[in-house]
Design goal:
This protein has about 350 residues and is an alpha+beta fold. It folds into 3 domains: about 90 residues, Beta Barrel (conserved putative lor/sdh protein from methanococcus maripaludis s2 fold), CATH 2.40.420.20; about 90 residues, Efflux pump adaptor protein, beta barrel domain (Elongation Factor Tu (Ef-tu), domain 3, Beta Barrel); about 110 residues, Beta Barrel (OB fold (Dihydrolipoamide Acetyltransferase, E2P)), CATH 2.40.50.100. About 20% of the residues lie in helices and about 40% in strands. The protein has 5 helices and 22 strands. The strands form 4 sheets. The protein has a 6-stranded antiparallel β-barrel with strand order 3-12-15-14-13-16. A 4-stranded antiparallel beta sheet has the order 4-11-9-6, with no helix packed on it. α2 packs antiparallel against α3.
Length: about 350
């Protein structure tokens, strides 16, 4: 019996040892701890600077509202004389066109004779005072009609367009010529309605022709109080300095300064981004890590934007290239490697 028990124990121990050797789960070697990912980024310094906010619009060079005139005839007729050419400048009152006046001259001669006869009769009480006054009125009216056939420039300016020649007929719809005072020009600019309320008279304005890089510094002289219902925009005007060499019809770009902030913190636009919740962030460099900081943004100028937020100070570094990915992935503290320093 003892031999049987001893044998049984021996077999059990042997089987157990075999199981431990051949069938027990092999404990996997502990994996090596993975190193923390390092992101390559570029950085820039938080700057303290002055920032300017602009409203931009496009338009065309035009005369001031009272600095141009279109000449026409008050009475249909044939043009008998043209005194001027395109590009020529005139003083106000200069005779530019004459219309066939033969009928009007005859009317003046007839009225003059009638008036002379009434005056002689008046010396001998041979006419009434009323008849004399009527003759005087007819004579004045005939002379006024004759004067209308001489078309004079109502303003000092330059003839920029001549539409008729001597011998051509003109009616009440005919535009004989256009006169513009080239020393009184403005840029008429269209501004989006949402921006129109930001603008006021006298605000500094930079003008640049679309065919040139040269700029003129001027100011707003007119701001419309109404927004066009069809276009959703409004009109502003900026004066063009005399002697600038600009001409009506040229297209311009206008940039109006409506706000200036001094001594503000600013960062490159590439360093700020909005996450999916609408919150703005920057990735502030803290040692070897980039730490996300919520910020409020202000005005933008060029490639810079104003920011405010806890821990944001001048000369601290923020991530520029790579910031968007960190912010969108909400990696609040990420090891970085700066590649531009």
């Amino acid at each position: 019996m003892k031999k049987f028990i001893t044998f049984t124990l021996f077999v059990g121990i042997t089987v157990g040892l075999g199981w431990l050797v051949w069938f027990r789960p092999v404990k996997a070697e502990e994996e090596e701890k993975k190193p923390e990912a390092v992101v390559s980024v570029r950085v820039a310094k938080v700057a303290r600077t002055n920032l300017h906010a602009y409203v931009t619009g496009y338009g065309v060079v035009e005369p001031e509202p009272k600095a141009s005139a279109r000449l026409g005839v008050p009475i249909p007729g044939v043009i008998t004389a043209v005194h001027g050419i395109e590009g020529q400048s005139f003083e106000a009152g200069t005779l530019l066109f004459e219309v066939d006046s033969r009928a009007a001259e005859l009317a003046v001669q007839f009225a003059q004779k009638t008036l002379d006869r009434q005056r002689k009769l008046a010396e001998t009480d041979g006419t009434s005072q009323k008849a004399l006054q009527e003759a005087e009125q007819q004579w004045a009216s005939a002379r006024a009609q004759l004067a209308l056939l001489q078309i004079r420039s109502p303003i000092a300016g330059t003839m920029i367009k001549l539409n008729v020649k001597r011998g051509e007929a003109a009616d009440l719809t005919t535009i004989l010529a256009e006169i513009v005072d080239l020393q009184r020009l403005v840029a008429s600019v269209t501004i989006v309605g949402d921006d129109l309320h930001l603008l006021k008279l006298g605000q500094p304005t930079d003008l640049a022709r679309t065919d040139s890089t040269n700029q003129l510094s001027t100011s707003l002289t007119y701001v419309s109080g109404q927004i066009d219902a069809k276009t959703g925009s409004g009109l502003v005007r900026a004066s063009i300095p005399s002697g600038s060499g600009w001409h009506p019809g040229q297209f311009v770009k206008a940039r109006v300064l409506w706000e200036e902030k001094t001594n503000r913190l600013a960062v490159p636009l590439a360093s700020v981004a909005k996450d999916t919740t609408g919150m703005w962030y920057v990735a502030l460099v803290d040692g070897e890590k980039a730490v996300l900081k919520p910020v409020q943004i202000g005005i933008r100028e060029g490639d810079w934007v104003e920011i405010e937020g806890d821990g944001i100070e001048a000369d601290k570094s923020v991530v520029t290239e790579g910031a968007y990915g960190l912010i969108m992935a909400q990696q609040f503290a990420t090891r970085i490697r700066v590649v531009n320093e």
